[in-house]
Amino acid sequence: MAPILNHTIVRSSDKWASAEFFARIMGLEVERNSPTHFAPVKINDNLFFDFDDGRDPIAHEHYAFHVDDEEFDAIFDRVKTEGLSYGSEPFAQDNMKVYDTWGGRGIYFHELNGHSIEIFTRRSPDGSYPP
What we know:
This protein has two helices and seven strands. It has helices at residues 15-26, 69-81, and strands spanning 7-12, 39-42, 48-53, 62-66, 86-87, 106-110, 116-120.
């Protein structure tokens, strides 16, 4: 069996506010009855984002999600409704453009703590990487 990523800790200034924001934008739910001290968000059957109150300064990370077209539209609508800046490049997340590489769409945006979130609909021809 190949290794399967089960969880990752996402540092935040307020774990519950961060978990709620991320879950709302991504169309997910915060697991309020967790037996841990984390504020977990279930990404899928194999992966949780465990939000935790971090030490300052919080190192900004990048999290990329391959989604289908319907999920992309729903997430993108929530990004715009929240008034978030977004962009077509990892370091230009405020150009308000959508990238369209390999026949798909993608955007980058920041969550509450400055972590970079990417959503995209098509992978590279070899399946290894979004643009």
